[in-house]
Amino acid sequence: MKQLSTVAKRFMICHSFTKFQCFSMHIQPPFYTQKLSSLADECFIVDSICKTLHKNQKNWDNLTNNFSSVKFTNSIIKNTLLHLKQPINAKKALTFFHWSAQLNHFPHEVSTYCITIHILVKARYLKDAKVLLGSLLMRVSENEGKDSFFIVLDSIIDSYGDVESTPLVFDLFMQTCAKLRMIDCVLEACKILDENGFMLSVVTYNVMLYVIQKSDRCSLLWGVYEHMIENRKRPNESTVKILVDGLCKEGRLQKFLDMLDRILGKRCSSPLVIVNTCLVYGMIDDGRIEEGLVLLKRMLQNHMILDVIGCSLVVLAKLKKGDLEAAWEVFEGMLKRGFDGNSFVYTLFIGAYCDQRMIEDAVEVLEEMENSGFKPFDETFDCLIQGCCRTQWLEDSLKYCERMMEMGLVPSRLAFNEMTNKLCENGYSKRVDEMLTVLLDKGFVPDSITYSCLIAGYGKEGNVEDALKLYYEMEYKSISPDAAAFNSLIVSLCHHKRLSEVEKFLMVMKDRQLRLDSFIYDIIISSYLDKRDKIRAQELCREMVGVQVRASN
């Protein structure tokens, strides 16, 4: 009997369209030792593997005993897995997947990984599916880099119908990618899934948003949330918390709280309204006006944002498009519906008029705003200060700056610098300097542009001492003077024949690698010639030529 078994185990008959038999006492022989040559052979192998998996408890050993000599192909692996695609056979499919992988170190293709993942997810073996997904993504990323994300996703989509899978597989895929910090392409992947008719769950969006927020990818965070709203997925409490945390990290939460205070006249108590306002405002501010309005309409229909906020954002959108008339129509319609005006909208109109240099109209809106009981805020005055400077209403710009300071407000650095530049060009340096002293006590933080404008103004007025005081104040506060500040100082010192101090500033500029303009060289050279110091004048001439040659190269 033992001898017969040995013979039987070694004996085999192979033919494409015949039924296999073995001359043994019901002992299962090993299969092919030669390469399969026909579709019938492959079908027979697949069928035999499935029968072995169904009949035996110790599947791994039985597979090894009966099929270790088979020359497996990806086609055999794929078709075997598809024969085991029903949830009841999921564990057997996983066993076969792992067994065939270790057999002669057979390298599974992405497609067979994905088929197995589909089978596991369909059977709700989610833990096993996650492990397999993670392993696949890491393996492919080693060879394909960023493309690995889409290679795997495309294969999952392609094999979805073959396995008659469930959309849960895409949630699992996106969650696994997020946890592996593969977030660069998640938004594009969301759009691909949307195009193929697959929608992700709120839980999956939350996982992606959480990981993105932790990675400081602000624009991607709001892009994914935008896609979520577009696909009519209502955010839950966890979603809103993640987005509020994102606003805090960006340093923008206070900005939107203040903005909603001005629209509502009180503190907004709904975090959902805050994050939705932020999303729509950001889209409009980025120039994506029509998209922002479409999203706003959807939010209003689903009571995700308040009507008065929606109207205010529509006014913003119309003004962004430069359509003042349409913006006024929206505002008047808002009043007719029973809503009050608000300081946010009035300031939008003031800013629009100032941008178009229509200062008289801006002042009229300010008066209407105050007559309606709304207080102007810092941004209101910033618009007026900048608008007045651009139309040469210099005294008025000073007046608005002084008025806002009386109200305990501080101008933005951008507005104050623009005013400083215009006023210092026109002989108001002393008044601006005095105003800066008051503002410093209120917490205003000047920059190099602020000081450079003042230094240039004092230099133009011939007040070199005050210009030098500002320079040393800059150095004391560790604000690095730019080339413009040094140029202004050098010109002033040359006019006062203080060439020893000019030389000191020249050395400082060279140490800091700041370039000296040929115009400034000319002034210094002229000053030395006036002093009859031809040697130094010639040295500076050669130096100027060398600088020009280096610049041209």
From TrEMBL:
Keywords: Repeat. InterPro entries: PPR_domain-containing (IPR052308), PPR_rpt (IPR002885), TPR-like_helical_dom_sf (IPR011990). It comes from the Eukaryota. PPR repeats lie at residues 236-270, 342-376, 377-411, 447-481, 482-516. PANTHER family: PENTATRICOPEPTIDE (PPR) REPEAT-CONTAINING PROTEIN, PF01535'-RELATED (PTHR47937:SF2), PLASTID TRANSCRIPTIONALLY ACTIVE CHROMOSOME 2-LIKE PROTEIN (PTHR47937). This is Pentatricopeptide repeat-containing protein. The lineage of its organism: Eukaryota, Viridiplantae, Streptophyta, Embryophyta, Tracheophyta.
